Amino acid sequence: MHYITLEGERIDKLREKLLREYGEDIYIINVEEKKKGILHNKRSYVMVAGIPDDVYLKRQKQQFLRTSTIAKEKSMEGMIYEDEEENEEEETSKDNIEIKNIENKNKVKKNIDPIFEKLETIEKKLSDLNTNVYIKESILDRYISSLTNLDFSNDFLDEMKENLSKTLTYEEANSIEVIRKKTMEYLKGKIIIDKQRIGKNDIAVLIGPTGVGKTTTIVKLATNSKVNKNYSIKLLSADQTKIGGYAHLQIAAEILQVPFYTIMKRDDYISQIAEKDDVIFVDSPGTSQKDSKMLGCIKEILDVKKKNIKTFLTISATTKYNDLIDIFERFKFLDYTHLIITKIDETSNYGAILSAISRYNIPISYITNGQEMTKNLIEPDEDFILKLAFSDDLK
Q1: Residue 96: helix, strand or coil by DSSP?
Q2: Domain limits for position 363
Q3: DSSP code, position 227
């Protein structure tokens, strides 16, 4: 970074000058007001600006090229003028004219040589700078490329690389440890952790594709609320699409000794959530995100506006990135507000699911694995997510 100082009566004019000469890459570092005059009734401003080295050196090269062109033109004019003057005063031999021309050319060379020496210096600095940029990008490229092994999506990695390229200094870009740390900070800034999870008076509705483990997750959540928090709870199932669709939940209700009801239509749902319970858990039918008709049926039953309803989109950690994006988009009209990630024990790479989540401002509430009712319900924090994401990279 090269630093320059400008002084003038108006800040906007100083900034315009910088933009005109160096473009949009300038950084205004500081502006100070300076009072002038005997009575201090006049003001000027001193602006300190930072200019990237490559931009500054290119600008210097352009200025020297213009200077050299002007100098060359003036020298050539002088040479022609002197030739004409000599011809008017006396006739000389061709040999003498040639000698004179050589002398004039030497004068031009003498004037231009220092300029080209400066140009060579600038070009060398530019070359060194380009080499540094290459080193910076090559080390960063290698690290970013290695993250594809953790299943991070290409668009996520491209965005992260662009961000790091702009923010890392040359020294930082040569340190794998710094790059790794900055990468984690970048992901941390893209993920939202739910600070207001299921609590008293909440209605927790779980939606999501077939086979992600919604019912098992509701059992875990219900067990946690009943056993660990001593809430009075109720279990509702709207899953009438498969044989025995609610049997698992009904058995769990019997074990926990809590009420269980099936929902056949919207009025059933409205009636059940109107009753007083600490927490009500609602299981919805599993469906393909491409089944618009089934999604519409779920919407018809569960589309009740109530302040304390929390709708959890439940997604599996094993799902491919493009399918995850499709799920996020197609379930969006069900107005989900929270996320639950399941089956983290069935994969070792979590880049795909975190890449997808980073595109949406939806908080992660819970992470689950396994089938046991009383185990493996995780309330994650940022450090847990980072450990999950980069576990292989940190080995």
Answers
A1: helix
A2: 202-390
A3: I
